[in-house]
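Re-running the complex after MR caught last week's input typo. The corrected sequence lines follow. Everything else is unchanged.
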Amino acid sequence: MTRFVRRRYLALKVECEEPLDRNAVSDAVCNSVLRLFGEVGVSQAGLYLVHFDEKMNYAVLRCSHKALPMVKAAVASIIKIGSQLAAVHVLRVSGSLKALSKKAIKS
Amino acid sequence: MKFSDLHLCIPLRDMTQAKRMIAKSFELGYSQIGMSLPLSIKQDVIVQLHQVCEEFGLDFVTRLDLAPRGVGELLSSLRRFRRSFEVLSVLCSFKPVARQAAKDHRVDLLSFRAFEPRRRFFDWAEAELASKSSAALEIDMTHVLSLEGFARIGLFSCLRREVATAKSFGVPVVISSGATEPLLLRKPQDYASLTFLFGMDASLALEALSKNPAGIVERNRRKQSLDYVAPGVRMVKEKKTH
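Corrected-run output:
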């Protein structure tokens, strides 16, 4: 049976000069979507930060598949996390966590 | 696909920062980078930049940004400097300059002020002139990243209109970073994602990051080579004299 909401998982690499925590990254992504697409956009995106590796600054973000172009644009437009200059790069996109981890291991 | 970034704004006084930015460009997947150079630049700095790029296997492109105040100044600058740089960009702050730059075959890139929507003259007349010459529309993504609020809203609105006009007249678009520091650089795919914000197709965006800038560099290098005689005329073989 297919799921009602199709999801996409994005592997992200966060670059920042200062150490970051999960909440800061999650807030930065949400705020970026909010700034570019408004409250309706955030509600459609279904954002959830599944995982954040604080040592390596890798993150896995979940969103709705319909909102993927919006989320990718919003993630790429992040230039600050908190008060620090930062950059977030999308490494991989996949339809399941299992496939994402396989792709990440391959690359 | 090989990606190009024709507008890195590297501080040439600080070579360590320059190296960091070149290394970052390589890490992000670019194979060709263009740097905006001042007219007063010394040859040894250019050689040094060439060497750093070669270390990373990057193709280094010299670029000059002109910001003329009138048509006369533009024409004299083009006469003087066209042969010395591989890519030549004109910042069109005045309408007569924009029109002249669009129809001049020596101009490669047309750029406009991001902060002043009324001084962005890329309308249908400009696009028609540009489509008959070889000029491309340049979009600096650093402004898309760094502007906020109404300034960014205005920029998106202008870019959406300009990209649609360029598409309908067949004017190539070139997307470049315009980055002044490594954290303002993004992967080519990320820039393609960002173009969604002003209604550009992903395939066109990838062309604007790869095929279009590489084509400009290749064309100009061919023109600057010793074999080149005139448009469509190239020296194939030299007659041997005994």
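None of the earlier attempt is carried over here. The radius of gyration of chain B is 18 Å. Chain B has a mean pLDDT of 92.
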